[in-house]
Structures are given as structure tokens and as C-alpha cells.
Amino acid sequence: MSNIDPSARVEDGAVIGADTVIGPYCIVGRDAVIGAGCRLLSHVIVDGHTTIGDGTTVHPFASLGTPPQSIGYKGEPTKLVVGSGCTIRENVTINRGTVGGGGITTVGDRGYFMIGSHIAHDCHVGNDVIFANTATLGGHCEIGDFTFIGGVTALQQFTRVGPQVMIGGMSGLRDDVIPYGLVNGIYARLSGLNIVGMRRRKITKARLAVIRSFFRELFLTEGQFAERLERVRPRAGEDPAIAEILAFIDDRKRRRRLCMARNDDVVLD
């Protein structure tokens, strides 16, 4: 049985899961589906065709499923889907999709979204991600699993970020980031591999040595990048992470630039 505060407004048609708590002054629209065991603490807005997975906690003044900030949006019934076990802190905003972008914004399971972070229309965010305070995605971004985005960091629309990436605080990201990358800077550059994250994911020292060697050969040796890329392709079989990085590079649907490295910026320890 759900527990809905008398001051909350839950419109007819909304589906509220068992043991979910809807706190004071929340507004839940008629097309919302909220899973079991969720907590909307207070003053939360859930708008449009929005689905929230089981066990997600939403803190005060968050707005989920509100219309996309797109001048092309004409009120179409697009969607937002948020996974299970997420923590959505104060003033977080997540917009639903647009018809032109596929009609849906998705957020995976167990995400932690800190105060004031923003996920724009048609973004697709993976599992186990962390957004620090006011981290911001433009529309149509893709964020891989286990990625961390630092505070006051902004990603330009259509940017792709592979899994297990670390993006430092106060960065401005315009280019795609390979899986396992470490990125920093106002005009962000690839500054190495996310070694800390890789160790947390139980990648062994022996594997790290192979991946570091591949990274150096691809990003830090002489010659044109296209030539270096062809040179390292036979190394795909040396480690699954290498194969994943090469597949990510080849899958540039929009042919965005890759976030690149400079020798004097890179730390691989």
C-alpha cells in the first residue's frame, strides 16, 4: 500500500507502486508510473509519460519528465524512463524526449544524481553512474555505465561517453570520450585512463599494463591518428577493454570528433 501525503496532488490515472511514499506538496501527473518502494520526499514534480523504477528516492524540488527544452517540441507524448534504485537529489531536472530524437530519455539503474544536475531530452544514461553537483548534459548525449561526471561540468549535445569514464569537475566536453578514459579541462582533453575506476572494477595489474601500452600506442606515438588506429587494430584480441575502445571509435554514428590526448597532459599511473 502506498502512502500519499494529503498535500500531494496525484492525478487520476497515475500508477503508484506498493510501499511508495509520496511526500508533501508533490505533483504526479496522470501518465506517470512510479514503481514499488519509491520515496518522493517533498515538492517533487513527475510530469508526462514518466516511469520511475522500484526503490528510487527523489529529493525536494526535483522535476522529472518535464517537457524538453527544444524549440521543435510541439507537445507530443514523449517519454522518460528512470531505472531502479536511483538517488535523485534536490533540484535535479530530467526532461522527456522529442519525436526527432527517438521520443524517449532513459536513465539506468542505481544512478546517483547530485544537486542541480540536469539530463536533457533524448539522452541515454547507463547504469551505476554518478553526476556531481550541477553536472549538465545537452540533448541526445549517451553516457556509459559506471561513468562519473564532475561538478559544474557540461557536455555539448550529441556527445558520447563510453563506460567507466571519469570526467573532472568544471570541464567543458565537446568531443566523444573513449571507454575507460580520464578527461579534464575547460576545453576538455583526454588526460589518461580512469585507473582508479578500473581497479575498482577489478581489472588486474597485468591487464592494466596491456591497456596502458595500447593507449600509448594509439594516442601518444608519432603519425596521423588514422594511421595509428590502423596500426593498433590487431591488438583487439589482447584484452576486452581494447576491443571495447576500438568498437566505440568505429561506432561514431554522427562522426563526432574524439577527445584526444597530448603527451604533456597524460598520466597513466
Strand-helix topology:
Elements: E1 3-4, E2 9-10, E3 15-16, E4 21-22, E5 27-28, E6 33-34, E7 39-40, E8 45-46, E9 49-52, E10 57-58, E11 63-66, E12 79-82, E13 87-88, E14 93-95, E15 104-107, E16 112-113, E17 118-119, E18 124-125, E19 130-131, E20 136-137, E21 142-143, E22 148-149, E23 154-155, E24 160-161, E25 166-167, E26 172-173, E27 181-184, E28 189-193, H1 195-200, H2 205-219, H3 225-232, H4 240-250
Short description:
The relative contact order is 0.08.
Overview of the molecule:
By secondary structure, the chain is of the alpha/beta class. The chain folds into two domains: 3-140, 3 Solenoid (UDP N-Acetylglucosamine Acyltransferase, domain 1); 199-250, no CATH class. The chain has four helices and 28 strands. The chain has helices at residues 195-200, 205-219, 225-232, 240-250, and strands spanning 3-4, 9-10, 15-16, 21-22, 27-28, 33-34, 39-40, 45-46, 49-52, 57-58, 63-66, 79-82, 87-88, 93-95, 104-107, 112-113, 118-119, 124-125, 130-131, 136-137, 142-143, 148-149, 154-155, 160-161, 166-167, 172-173, 181-184, 189-193. Strands 1-4-7-10-13-16-19-22-25-27-28 form an eleven-stranded mixed β-sheet. A nine-stranded parallel β-sheet has the order 2-5-8-11-14-17-20-23-26, with no helix packed on it. Strand 27 (181-184) and strand 28 (189-193) form a beta hairpin. Helix 2 (205-219) runs antiparallel to helix 3 (225-232). The longest helix is centred in the C-terminal third of the chain and has 15 residues, at 205-219. The protein is elongated and about 65 Å long. The N and C termini lie far apart (52 Å). The mean pLDDT is 96.
